């Protein structure tokens, strides 16, 4: 978990051409996709 936080905090330096304002839509899209995946393959359904 700490590794992911470190990567996320340095993401704009690691990827050239990535601006800070691009991180919010990327994060929102990733969380949306992950939650849809979890619901699709949920054993509780």
UniProtKB/TrEMBL annotation:
Q: Which PANTHER family match?
A: NUCLEOLAR PROTEIN 5 NUCLEOLAR PROTEIN NOP5 NOP58, NUCLEOLAR PROTEIN 58
Q: Which organism is it from?
A: Citrus sinensis (Sweet orange)
In terms of superkingdom, the source organism counts as Eukaryota
Q: What is this protein called?
A: Uncharacterized protein
State the InterPro entries in the record: Nop56/Nop58
Spell out the molecular function terms from Gene Ontology.
snoRNA binding
Spell out the GO cellular component terms annotated for this protein, sorted alphabetically and separated by semicolons.
box C/D methylation guide snoRNP complex; small-subunit processome
């Amino acid at each position: 978990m700490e590794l992911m936080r470190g990567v996320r905090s340095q993401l704009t330096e690691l990827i050239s051409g990535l601006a800070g304002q691009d991180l919010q839509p990327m994060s929102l899209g990733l969380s949306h996709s992950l939650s849809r995946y979890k619901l699709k393959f949920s054993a509780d359904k």
